[in-house]
Amino acid sequence: MNHQQDDKESPLTIAPADARNLPTQSMYQNRVADYWNAEENPVNLELGKLDDLYHHHYGIGAADRSVLDEPDPVLRRERITAELHRLEHAQAELLAARLGPLSPADRVFDAGCGRGGGSVVANLRYGCHADGVTISAKQAAFANEQARKRGIDGKVRYHHRNMLDTGFETGAYAASWNNESTMYVELELLFAEHARLLRRGGRYVVVTGCYNDTYGRASREVSLINAHYICDIHPRSEYFRAMARNRLVPVHVQDLTADTIPYWELRREAEHLVTGIEDTFLSAYKNGSFQYLMIVADRV
Q: Which of 76, 130, 149, 228 has the highest Cβ tally under 10 A?
């Protein structure tokens, strides 16, 4: 992507175009980028089409299972899709609520932004500036088009960059987050970049699936999830160790495992959206080997 025009408009958030035309990536990251450049999964696209908020994460909260009783097959599909999207959006709002207090003058950083829904949610809540980063050029272009359609492209921008090495200005951000994207990178490198970008007292939030150290090594289910998404799920303990080494001090930890199970149970019934990994997630959550966690930390 060409960010030369963006450079003139927002020098705080855009690195020089000649230095950042393409993100520096490992061979593994190139494979991940190829995966997301090719991805056209209905469970991501069909839900986002409802209100042009495209989330690349899972849902939380009690599900309205009455949608499964809808006798009309077309309406049943529509109602299931809408309910799954509602649960996804509830997760995005939960994360965004932990970023504040923020002002319209503040800048936030969305690491591994996908098709951009999280940055839009933050902007709608706080009126803040947002920079999203993805190693998928296709995702960045899609998200920027959505921002233009909403008329918020002056404040919300997406960049084809590596979230481990963004080139953004040190200390420029009041808040930052990862929403189900940490399993694609080394936590030590990731948290070092967040600590560099955040101002002192800035807030970092992560929502992630992690394997439960008390279970032992990664379970069979966790290995299957890794293979499905070409990722490497980290143990829960590594999040806290890597944060401590990078001046990120947890102030709130919330186990969302029980809250996400209704989403997966409903998604398993959505014939038009299933990906084949639903039963694996449910088994992992229920046998205790896998957890869905939110960690909120302050940069000290």
A: 130
pLDDT digits (tens, 9 = 90+) for 121-137: 999 999 999 999 999 99
**Separation CA 281–CA 63 (nearest Å):** 17
CA pair distance 176, 188, nearest whole angstrom:
16
CB-based contacts of 136-141 (< 8 A; 24+ apart in sequence)? 136/33, 136/36, 136/37, 136/160, 137/1, 137/33, 137/37, 138/36, 138/37, 139/36, 139/37, 139/113, 139/114, 139/115, 140/1, 141/1
What is the residue extent of each domain of the chain?
Answer: 4-299
Specify the CATH architecture of the domain 4-299: 3-Layer(aba) Sandwich (3.40)
Region label for 116, one of left (φ > 0), alpha (ψ between -120 and 50) or beta (otherwise): left
Q: Is the pLDDT confidence value at 22 over 80?
A: no
Q: Are 132 and 118 in contact (CB under 8 A)?
A: yes
Q: Are 266 and 175 in contact (CB under 8 A)?
A: no
Number of other CB atoms surrounding residue 47 within 10 Å: 24
Mode of pairing for the β-strands spanning 248-255 and 198-211: unpaired
Cβ-contact 87, 111 below 8 angstroms: no
The pTM (predicted TM-score) of the whole model is: 0.90
Q: What percent of the chain has pLDDT over 90?
A: 80
